[in-house]
Design brief:
424 residues, alpha+beta, Alpha-D-Glucose-1,6-Bisphosphate, Chain A, domain 4, Catalase HpII,  Chain A, domain 1, eight-stranded antiparallel beta barrel, 20 strands, 25% helix, elongated
């Protein structure tokens, strides 16, 4: 057997859940049906289960399978647990992952049947980690495979799905919390020192001058389910946007353009009151490589603004963006921006993408004049203190960003009193 200690990279606990109403089957009958023919639920264009040991139907303890998948790998597994309402596989040597996966069903009064696939695993070797963590190929394949499996289970049950497949992921870094905390502290100290020194020379080290606008977010979701209200909801939210030039170069020269967005998230039940959310975007490329690189621009519109740093939505790393449409040309100077929005609103498409996937539109951002200067009362943003519900910052730079912003803003706040007095 190939247990997690033999794998590499982070440990993941993943859960795929589908709720089914109106099925004539009990949970035990559903698990029996799945165990008789795993390929009846599996997306065979991605994964085919081939039984290599054991003759019983449905599957029993000790049975072994090889899951044939596209690419230069097959995934051998063994049944290590079998109950009336569940069965569990463990990975064998040569599998893409190292760990276990469980398939289970439950009878509930509220929903009828609830079917769940839950795994505890990490990448089996260094190549698998690159395909999963760095390139995202194995991650997308796995997500498609098990989500499709859940859809097919709902069909096999004879009932109908309630909602969509819910995907949840919890991650633990395999390098150990001590080492990870040490790296985070070192990077945080370095970034904080650099930017606080810059803040003593100039109130805002980056994006010194900008304009603030009222904004409306019209959200309508995408063709897929993300498990994040911001990406899935159909609603209209109110907010504010600050557009700024990062370096403060003369308007005739290209600059890194920033779009800082703040809005009020609706209450999500009694336990979660209404809260502010913030998102920072800057001009980047749109291609799989370019979306990770800043890009100077000479126009507010048309332009592409990306999050640059990734977030985690369930098992997927995603990037967010806003696209100022081609139909409107607004030169990248603050006076030109103020004049354009006094004439009519500026419209941008809100988009989301996995790290290497295509961009999908999930809403529209509308900016309205008149603009407001924030020179006397700076509008400051810190997404780490005002997170988007359901989106977790992904990567070391995201962990470093919050403390760095907070330190810079403390320096700037202390300097604001004397600065305003001198200004008067």
């Amino acid at each position: 057997m190939q247990n997690p200690r033999q794998g590499v990279g982070p440990n993941y606990q993943r859960r795929y859940t589908v709720r089914i109403s109106g099925s004539p089957l009990t949970a035990a009958q559903l698990i029996t049906r799945i165990g008789e023919d795993l390929n009846a639920a599996s997306p065979v264009e991605v994964a085919v289960f081939d039984k290599t040991s054991g003759t019983s139907l449905p599957l029993e303890m000790g049975d072994e399978y090889v899951v044939h998948m596209p690419g230069p790998w097959n995934c051998p597994v063994r049944v290590v647990e079998r109950t009336s309402v569940s069965f569990r596989f463990t990975t064998l040597s040569g599998h893409l992952e190292a760990g276990e996966i469980e398939f289970r069903a439950a009878d509930t009064r509220e929903y009828g049947l609830v079917f769940t696939i839950e795994s505890w695993a990490r990448s089996g070797d260094r190549l698998a980690e690159i395909l999963y963590e760095r390139l995202g190929i194995a991650k997308e394949m796995q997500l498609h495979m098990w989500a499709h499996f859940c859809y097919r289970v709902a069909e096999l049950s004879g009932g109908r799905m309630i909602g969509d497949v819910e995907v949840e992921t919890e991650r633990a870094n395999a390098c150990g919390p001590g080492r990870e905390r040490l790296i985070t502290r070192v990077l945080t100290a370095a970034f904080t020192r650099i930017f606080t020194l810059a803040a003593r020379l100039r109130d805002r080290p980056l994006h010194p001058s900008g304009l603030v606008f009222d904004a409306t977010l019209v959200l309508h979701g995408t063709s897929r389910y993300w498990g994040v209200p911001f990406l899935d909801d159909h609603t209209e939210l109110q907010g504010q946007v600050r557009l700024s030039r990062a370096v403060g170069l003369p308007p005739a020269l290209p600059d890194l353009l920033g779009l800082a967005l703040r809005w009020w998230q609706p209450q999500a039940g009694d336990a979660e009151p209404e809260a502010t959310a913030e998102l920072l975007l800057a001009t980047t490329g749109q291609s799989p490589l370019g979306r990770h690189l800043l890009r100077p621009a000479a126009k507010w519109s048309p332009a592409f603004y990306g999050s640059l740093l990734a977030y985690r939505a369930g098992d997927r790393r995603i990037l967010l963006g806003a696209v100022a449409r081609q139909a409107r040309i607004v030169p990248a100077g603050l006076p030109a921006l103020a004049y354009a929005l006094n004439e009519r609103p500026l419209l941008l498409d809100l988009v989301v993408a996995t790290q290497f996937g295509p961009w999908e539109r999930f809403g529209e951002l509308r900016l309205y004049g008149p603009p407001r200067s924030d020179d006397s009362e700076p509008a400051r943003f810190n997404p780490a203190h005002n997170p988007i519900r359901g989106l977790l910052p992904a990567g070391l730079l995201q962990q470093v960003r919050g403390p760095t912003y907070a330190a810079v803003q403390r320096v700037a706040h202390r300097a604001e009193g004397p600065h305003l007095e001198r200004h008067r």
